[in-house]
Structure formats: structure tokens, C-alpha cells
Amino acid sequence: xxxxxxxxxxxxxxxxxxxxxxxxxxxxxxxxxxxxxxxxxxxxxxxxxxxxxxxxxxxxxxxxxxxxxxxxxxxxxxxxxxxxxxxxxxxxxxxxxxxxxxxxxxxxxxxxxxxxxxxxxxxxxxxxxxxxxxxxxxxx
Amino acid sequence: xxxxxxxxxxxxxxxxxxxxxxxxxxxxxxxxxxxxxxxxxxxxxxxxxxxxxxxxxxxxxxxxxxxxxxxxxxxxxxxxxxxxxxxxxxxxxxxxxxxxxxxxxxxxxxxxxxxxxxxxxxxxxxxxxxxxxxxxxxxxxxxxxxxxxxxxxxxxxxxxxxxxxxxxxxxxxxxxxxxxxxxxxxxxxxxxxxxxxxxxxxxxxxxxxxxxxxxxxxxxxxxxxxxxxxxxxxxxxxxxxxxxxxxxxxxxxxxxxxxxxxxxxxxxxxxxxxxxxxxxxxxxxxxxxxxxxxxxxxxxxxxxxxxxxxxxxxxxxxxxxxxxxxxxxxxxxxxxxxxxxxxxxxxxxxxxxxxxxxxxxxxxxxxxxxxxxxxxxxxxxxxxxxxxxxxxxxxxxxxxxxxxxxxxxxxxxxxxxxxxxxxxxxxxxxxxxxxxxxxxxxxxxxxxxxxxxxxxxxxxxxxxxxxxxxxxxxxxxxxxxxxxxxxxxxxxxxxxxxxxxxxxxxxxxxxxxxxxxxxxxxxxxxxxxxxxxxxxxxxxxx
Lengths: 140, 542
What we know:
- The complex is a heterodimer of chains A (140) and B (542).
- Chain A is an alpha/beta fold and 140 residues long.
- Chain A has a single domain (4-139), classed as Rossmann fold, CATH 3.40.50.
- Chain A is 26% helix and 17% strand.
- In chain A, strands 1-6-5-4-3-2 form a 6-stranded mixed sheet.
- Chain A starts with a strand and ends with a helix.
- Helix content of chain B is 37%, strand content 18%.
- Chain B has helices spanning 6-27, 33-41, 65-78, 101-109, 143-153, 225-239, 250-257, 259-273, 282-291, 309-318, 346-359, 382-391, 422-431, 435-441, 500-517, 524-531, 534-541, and strands spanning 45-47, 52-56, 62-64, 82-85, 91-96, 127-128, 168-171, 185-192, 195-202, 215-221, 319-321, 327-332, 343-345, 363-366, 372-378, 406-407, 446-449, 463-470, 473-480, 492-493.
- Chain B has a 5-stranded antiparallel sheet with strand order 1-2-5-4-13. Chain B has a 5-stranded antiparallel sheet with strand order 3-14-15-12-11. Chain B has a 5-stranded mixed sheet with strand order 6-7-8-9-10.
- In chain B, strand 8 (185-192) and strand 9 form a beta hairpin.
- In chain B, helix 1 (6-27) runs antiparallel to helix 4 (101-109), helix 5 crosses helix 9 and helix 7 crosses helix 8 (259-273).
- Chain B is globular and about 60 Å long.
- Chain A binds chain B through residues 35, 59-63, 65-66, 69, 73, 87-90, 92-94, 96-97, 109, 112, 115-116, 119-127, 133-139, and chain B through 5, 7-8, 10-11, 14, 17-18, 21-22, 25, 30-31, 35, 38-39, 121, 151-152, 154-163, 226, 234, 237-238, 242, 272, 276-278, 280-281, 283-284, 287.
């Protein structure tokens, strides 16, 4: 279930299909990536996707962070959802990698999520969000 | 030395607040130990055999007297009055209380220090050459590049849940004092057509599968560096093995797909990443470099008076040439005979801080061999420095000799260990306590690990010792011929292992064999390389 969403558009009702099913000539507009799926295979189809769900079966498996960035770097603007074993303390990193909705398996405390997202005002590196890295603030 | 600006300080302060919140949630039972574990690990907090252990980052091993005094203060206030300097140029405290940890980090933050990413499956503290800024053979000071990487890697959103931990070393000399090619990424700064850049080595490491990192790129320009390293990490994050913790380091990926294929994948990723604008302008490297400008050297080039024989011995063994005439590099050995390698009391840490402030332009370094360096001491002050060190039991004249042992904490502290390391180090040092005999043996790097994870760098020891558990009994394997320097190599195992006393005897036999076989000014490892394993094997087991 989507617990946290940072977008204004309508939630896609269509269920997401696997990457293989999608590549097999599906007309689906929602797709689900497992950790070992290659996100780059979606690049030719980003225009017609409204939801990409990235699975996190275990919170320690960080492949989904790279998948998210690759999709955003390729210009994807639809919903990018982290689903699965997602912890409060990972959400800030995930937001920076381009995720804008979260469907954690265990329910998260909204106050704790809000606190985690507002802890840092400054970031050292450029990522997939709009944050201006510290080096740019230093040098304009 | 680098100084924080408001941005750096804000980030470290925010971390303290975040960790305080995480600890509170854990203590209130809102998160489980399993969920808390990766959070505390990213703050360098381990649950060990007896208590929590906190590892504090000392970026590229450089610190000033104010920071050094803070380390002493923490040892006094939060620990049992000592700290342990590590092979990754950090310091560890072994007896920390969870409920005091946030206060401790807040005190550290007040002197621009932290414990960020000193553990966990993320990019760890960047290590470097302890003689940076002082070595005659360096092409540039490597620390500004290390600081650039420190900032880039701090809370990197994509690379905080890597398959396994990730260690980067930066050097800028042909002589490798940082075991650069035994890191996940090793950078050697070089000059090409007048321009500075980095030779990039990827996939080195120790642990149960030791590997020497192959060169992946002969020259990456300064303003491409972060893009290139980001590409190296992204390939690893996506394709590094996650099915087996023992095969999860990048060395396994590079080994399995081959250096050529890894290089190709990185080149492809780099071509893409370079378009994203993640590289800071060169002005940022220049800004950082300004903090590392050479101090105002002005001492006359006078040779110290050698009439005190104990001082002369220390001078010859522990003091190294400086690039600036009139100055020298002082190595403070934390390896007294029978002591615990790398340990220092709060009083000793304070003494070293005072000496740095008075005699070394306020700078200290921690070395991967678990010693301390005063990098810029005027030669005219060497005798005074030695006297102060002697009075604090810090004038051990054994740098790079057999009693200058690297040892992990082992089974006395560590929950991963199979065997004790410290008592073995103490027994070997005691066996070779005769200073003249040690000096006659000459450079001999002996390194001890209490388990296969190899935190004591045994693979890179001229003589290496690995503690294993053999049916419930501690057993020690002996390796010969390793090196972590520019002549990097992995030691080879001699044969069956030994018990605690047997390993000390075996080391002695190997050393005596070397004394018998050596030619000219050969070091132990040179003789081993010339004659091979057999004569040593015969001496040890025959």
C-alpha cells in the first residue's frame, strides 16, 4: 500500500507487470522492477509509463537505488515507487535517488518519516533530486 | 589542514541529531536491533564481545592538536582511559555505552570530527599516505583529493547500501606507504604532460580472498575524477554479488568478469555519468588545496647532536627525511615491547598533541601500521621531542622492525575473531626484545590477524600470521613474502599451523634462516623472494 506519496497527479490504478511481461509487447503503463532487473531496458518506453515500482525484498539490497537514478537520469518523470522492505532511515536517500512514492511493507511512523526527510539541509553531491550540492553553493 | 565551513559543520551536526533520534527510538523499542544495526554501523558503532565499540574517523589520518586532545578526552570520559589506533588510520574505543554515544559524537563534532561511515556497507573513511605534504617523493599532496572524495562519499544516496564495505586510498608517491593496491579503489596521483590526474586501481583487498588491484585507468583527469569513481561504484552496486557475503567485495566482481570487461563497463557508465554534471569545478579542488598549503618552514638546516646514544638509535630508526631542508618526519611507535599494538593512553595522546602543537605546525598523522607521525619537526628540535616522548614511554625505536607489529584486536575484543592476536604480538615482540638483534634483522613487517577477515593485514606481511579455530583450539598459520608497499604481494602459507608458543618459535626460525641466507643488504622479504619458500620451510618444520 502506498503510504507516502510526493506527487500531485492521480495514482495509477493499473497493476504493474513484470519487466519480462512488459518487454513482451505489453501495453501496460505500470511496471515492476526486481533488484536484478536492468532498469536501462525500460529507457525506450519511458514516455508511456506512468508508474515504475522498484522492489526492495530486503532493505540491505541497494540495487534499487541505482535503478531509480538511471531512470531519472534518462528523463523519466512518472511515479517512481519504492516497495517492500523500506525503512524510515532510507527514505531520505531514496528521495535523493528519485523515488517519489513509498509502499513499505511494515507501516512507518509518519512523524519519523517527516523528521528523517527534514534532518539534512545540505548535500555534498549532486543526485537525482533538485538539491543544489554544497560545491555549487560554494562556487556559484 | 582542512577546516570546516558552515556547510560541513551543518552536515556533521545534523548527523549527531539524527543518530540521537535513532538511539532514542532503539532504546524505546520502536525499532528492532536488526533494523538498528545498519544505522549504528554507519555511525561506526559495533556490538562487540563485551561492549559497544565506536570507531571514530580520522580522514586520511590527519589531525591537529585540538582534535588529538579530544580523542584523549573521550578516552578518559567515555572509555577506560585509552584508545586503539587502527590499520585504517582511525581510532577505536572499546568500552562505549550506547546511551552516551550521541553526547560523545556531539563532542567530536565540536572539533570537526565524526564517526560517519566508519563501518557498514558504504564508502569508508578515505585513507592516504601518512607522509603527505612532507615526503620528498610526492608529486603533490594527496589529501585535497582525499577530502574531495570524503565529501562526495559522505551520505552518498546511491551508495549507502552497497553489496559490501568499500575502501578507497589515495597516494601521490611512487613509494606506497598506504597499501594502496590492497584497497577496493586505489588512486595514485601522477603528472602527465604537466597535468595532475589519477591512476585508478580497482578490486584489491585482503580478507579471505586476497587480491592485488589491477589498473583500470592509467590517467583520470581531476575534473573527471568523481564521475569516474561514481561509474566504478555504480557498476559495482548493480552487479556486485549479493548472494554470498564472502564474495560481495568488488575484488570478486572484477576477478570474475575480468579487469578488461570491468574497465569496459565503467567506461560505458562514465560516458553517461559525465553528462550529469556531478563533478565540482576545479575551483573546489583549489579551495580545498589551499588548506593544505605548506607551513612556513624557516628552520636552519642543522644536524642534531648525536652524543646521546639512545637518541641516536631512535633518530636512525624512527626519523625520516623531509622534503624541506632543516626538517624531519618523526614516527612515534605505538609498539612498546610487550604492549598492545596501536593502543595509547589518554595521557600519551595528550603528550603527542602537545608535541604536535609545539614542534610540528600543529599536525599529526595516524599510519596504517598503527603508529603516529609528527610530519614537520625542525631538526634542531628533534632531541627535545625525543626526550618528551621518552618520558611518556613513546620513544620505542623500532619503526618497521620485527616488533613494530600490526595486529587486529582479535579474540580479546572482536566478535568475529577466531583467535587472539594481541598476546601473539606481545610474545613475538618479547622474544625479539633485544634491540640490537632487531636492528640486525632490519626491516621486517610482521602482521597478525585473528581471523580470515584479515584486519591485521597478514596477507601483506613479510611475515604474516593468521589465527584460526581448529576444533575449538586456537591455531596459527604462518605466511611469508607478502607486502603492502609498492612491491605489493600476497604472502604464501608455509604449511601446517602452530599453537601459541609454536608460532613464536616458527617466526624465530624463519628469521634466523634469513640471517643465515641473506646477501648484502637484503631485507627479509628480498631474501625470501630470491631463495623461495623451501629453505624456510625446512628451517621451520625440518
